Amino acid sequence: MSAEATNPVSAAEAAVTDTGVRRRGRARLELRRIGRAALLGATAGPAPRDRLPDAISHVAEAHRAHHPEADLSVLRRAYVLAESSHRGQFRKSGEPYITHPLAVTLILAELGAETVTLTASLLHDTVEDTEVTLDQVRREFGDEVAYLVDGVTKVEKIDYGAAAEPETFRKMLVATGDDVRVMSIKLADRLHNMRTLGVMRPEKQARIAKVTRDVLIPLAERLGVQALKTELEDLVFAILHPEEYETTRALIAEATGSGSPDALAAVAEHVGTVLREADIAAEVLVRPRHFVSVHRVRLKRGELRGCDFGRLLVLVAEDADCYAVLGELHTCFTPLISEFKDFIAAPKFNLYQSLHTAIAAPDGAVVEVLIRTHRMHKVAEAGVVALGSPHGTAPDQAEPAEGPDPAEDGERTDPTRPGWLARLLDWQESAPDPDTFWSSLRADLAEDHEITVFRADAGTLGLPAGSTCVDAAYAQHGEAAHACLGARVNGRLAPLSTVLADGDTVQLLLAQDSHSGPSPQWLDHARTPAARIAITAWLQAHPEAAAQPAAAPRAPLSVAADRSSGAELHADLDGAPPAPVRPAGCCTPVPPDTITGFRVRGGSVTAHRTGCPAVDVMHRLGRAVVPVRWGDAAHCRVTLVAESFGRPGLLADLTEAIATAGAEVVSATVEPPNEQRVRHTYTLQLTDAAELPNLMRAMRDVPGVYDVGRTHRL
Ligand code: MN
To answer: How far is the CA of 101 from the centre of ligand 1 (A)?
Structure first.
């Protein structure tokens, strides 16, 4: 890989520094400058005893900028141990090995990490690659540093073989569950390794890039570490899509080359003037998009205009100023309202906050604008890295982000203990084999955002976008969700396959007995690893259920017994011969329903329930009403419709309930399932019409059945 390719953003940055408008947050540029300086400085030879070694002085400088009171002596001790123990080891590039932990530590220092993280970062490869033991780290630097170093130390290949990589990630994620700083170090470690990947064989580059894409980048996104995420994305892009990368690089070079008119800078000036005139103190910056972002916007818009190569970033002091800026922009420019998003009122799950909008430039080009406070900017760039110790013990702990009240909803507002991580740690326990864990992990992380649904009883559930009621059931009830029969979404009965939207209220209906289990079809509706793993395990333990066909037949199933007579009906016909009276098929009246009779062709009489819609129709047709009444015999025929969620054995259970209630099935129709809901229609012969309410109750009690009613129309 060329030197340029190892650092793809540098071309864009270098090309635009002479425009007079600040292009990017100061932190990003510092991060890169100091990162390179550290690599050079590390070879500068032994340090004087009375001050920090030169190689670590850049780390110290960066650390002091965020934490003026920090105790630097511990960093010096860590550096001395790391340097002496790695001495004689070299990177594949030929540089002394110590350049690697130094560069990783600088990345973290620039993002505002606290001292414990930096100490552990300097030592992060010692236990894995040198004679230093974990006990020694613990004795010299304390439990927290030892915990972090252990968290990022690989499991032994000799013990795990091919499973070493998945098991290393599993170990790291479990350690991250108790201290998110483990993942901060891992992300910075991977960033530096990706920056220097060019020395590896192409196959190895591609393999590492894919794991970075599937696992590390989603983790950086979820932990809100935008600065690391964007650079990792570009590095992966260059390796896995070299042609698109080259096209994008050429487009950026052309658009930002000297002599090109700078469309965004002109809009930035204009916006700055508007805000000054409105008396709003704000910094207006042009932020170049990273390569992958330019590539995405090119795919979205088809072609690129000058304003597509970056966005405007407006930084203000107070939350309220964000809305003031928005108001001015929407007044003085033409806003594209569809692009407006308020991530301040509704922060993303990773704590990202900003207002997003877009305005039309005078030439019609679209300019995307991000509006945020300085604090929001820091959180957006550094995410959890800047949040300090999750234990709250670090003396120089960074000021925690002031989000919404954490008590309100722990899921969203404690970024050091995110809900998605807790769920991931839950399901990984049920995935003992490394292959299942590894594929489930990548599938889980591939979901790019979360939704929050409200539980009908209390509380909320955080789920990946695209989750269904099946996922909600397992997220809320664990293995008890095997007995799930159905769900109400926003108060309405909904099939388990229903895809939930952010803000939906979901109530899960569980069978009281333990007979029912998940159907194989649930796997089609389960998107979360927790649900998939639990359903698969149950089906493996119950092969007879897995082998069953769908819960209900695919084609309508009808059975009909002989048509014996219904309840006794009489028509009172003055000066006319008696006529046979039949219960109308549309509403199947039974005693003691109020009934209305009509004479129909052929001379017979049909009796409808008085409320049946057919009665109105007959009146409009001018059909004569015939007085009808029930006879003495109590037996009757009735048609009932049972609405239910499909499951194996449902038909058997329903007919059993009907027989137990003393009714006889005259005919039955089972419609093919529609999104797991099935409709059974039974025409039943009862010996006593008074038993009808009991019969309907017995049918409703069958697990899976949520409604039983009389038909109005067959
Ligand atoms: Mn490392």
So the answer is: 6
